[in-house]
Every structure is written in C-alpha cells, then in structure tokens.
Write a structure and sequence with these properties.
With 363 residues, the protein is of the alpha/beta class. Helices cover 39% and strands 14% of the residues. A hairpin with a 2-residue loop joins strand 2 and strand 3 (40-42).
Length: 363
Amino acid sequence: MSLVLDMTPTAINRTAVFHIVMDTARAWKKHSCHYRYGKKYQNQLLETSEEISTVSPEIIELVLGDNGFINETRNPYSYGHRRPTDDRVLFFDPLYTLTDEIRPNDVVMVLDTSPITNPEWHNDRVCQLYHTAYTRLALSKAHILSISRHTSMSLWGNFGINPDTITEIPLYLRKDVEPYSVDAKYRKKRLLFVGSLETRKNIIGLMLAFERSRLATKGYELSIVGGDGHGAAQIKQIAADISGVKLYGFVSNETLQSLYRESVAFVYPSYLEGFGVPLLEAMSWGLPILTSTTGAPPEVVTEGAILVDPNDIEAISDGMHTLVGMKAAEYNHLAEVNRAHARRFSFQRYISTMETAVFLNGA
C-alpha cells in the first residue's frame, strides 16, 4: 500500500497551504509517494508554476463548477465516490476529500475551521462545500492532523471529534522569509501587518485603531501586505480615507523581507487564526508583537506579546502606543526572545512530527 499525496490545493491556492503541500512533498521524495491532482494520479510531482497551470483549469472547475464538488453536497452523509485503489491518501485540506470517499487509513490535515464556525467571512458556496467535507470527515474515522490546540478543540466542539484522537502538528518558519539582517539601523516608523485582505483578519479594526492612535501625525505608517480576499473591496475603500495607511498588495519575498526588516513592530489582531505563520515570521525578525486573545495566536507567540480583544479598538490603539514606546533595552531583550522562540518552529520539527504521524504510526 503506497501513500498518495493529494496535491490538489497547489493548483488553486497560493497561500500558506500551497507552501505546506509543496514543502512536504519535496521533503518526501525519498518515500516514493504518488501524487494526485483532482481525480488524476501520477508518479511525478509537478513543481513549477508552468507544470501546475496545466491541471489548474480542470481543478478549478471541479471545486467551483456546478458539476463538480457542489454535487456532493446533495448527500453530505454519504462517503462520496469509491476510489478504485487501496492507496492511503494524505489530504492537506478537508475540502479535497470530496473527490471520493475517505477511508479510515487516510490522513486529513485541518488548517482552518472558520468556514464552519464563521460562515459570514466566506463565500456561501465555499461554506456549503466545507460543511459537507467536515461532516464526512467526522464519520470517516480517518486520522486527523491539526495545526493547533485551538483547531483540535474547534473540531471537538463542532463535530464531536475527540481531541485525544487528533495529532497536533504546529506549522513552521519558512526558510525563504527568514531574516538576513536584524540591524536596528534599518528600522523605520512602520507598523506591519501581513495577511490576505479579508474580513476575518480584522484589518478594518486595525486601521480604525491606527487612526485613533494618531501615530500618523508622528510619521508612522501602517503597512498592510497581502492579496485580495473576502471583503477586500471594503478594506480598500476604508484604507483610502485613513492617513498613514498603505496597502502594498501581494509582494515578492524580497520585498516582504525588506518590509519586515524596516518595521518597528508587527500588528496582527485577527479575529480567528488556525495558527498564524506571519507571527512566526515577524518574531524571527525580532519584532515585538500585538495580536489577538482569540484563536491560536496565544499558542504561537511568547509571553512578551501584547494580546488584545480583536473587537476592542481602544485596546488595539493603546497596544500600538506601547509597541512604539518601548525603551531600547526592553525592545532588544524582546527581540532576542522572539527570535529564539521562532527558531523552535523549524521545518525539521514539522516534518519529523508529520513522518511519525503518517509513516511510523500507520495513521
């Protein structure tokens, strides 16, 4: 029995899940895995954008088209199509289990339960698809990997899946965003946010807090980096009316590194995160952190982080003043603590835990 890596997310997604899937697949070439894109199996991993683009149209139609996954929602308690082989499949997202049945010896990674817990942040069709996928997952007895304790508890609360049966595998700091310089001389009056422009990230609340802080009058910029997501139009409209806010859109790794290096602090008061990889990236640059009391961020950051209620604009604003008002000794100490903490979340730690869960335990 061979392991099949479901690479379907790489053909439709360029966010964190894309890197997780590709990094894992590349690390496991030694295991002679097979790969699946949609419903098609193959022996070769598609690694370049050009190769992946050849399967993208079919997968987009499968996920979003009327004759694709949406048909599966008509009977959410079924096991879907029966696949013809006895392969085990590692699914990196429950959504793609809708290609066929889920078997007890399969492995399903869960990164985000917000389409279930907070459907108002997502497209209606996406929520419908995820509801079907999670319902089947709960019935399947497949082994579940979650990226945080918060995610495990969410699965328990919404689907009755015992957290003790779930393997928790924290995510990792990607090598292409690790710092190449942390010299304080590069720091500018910049507060940085990195994440897609979507309602769930609480970017509007962040911008309103920045406006309330009046830090723009002291030369500070709130730099927001990320591509469009659900709610981007409203975010852009509000950003245009607030002095000191700059939307950078999606940027290259080189530009992102420069922004991390030049920022004085990282502000991330998201309503809900399954993990929060940008927090790791910011800590690796030695940046002090402001983030939320909700979701997984408290599991990721150090004790030196400022934790706020994401609904409390005043608290976010006050937290910004605390960040920019740190004395040099406190700032430098926190920078070292954050860098050391971020290094604990290495790719080697992640992949070793994955291998134990998938290969040694037999899932």
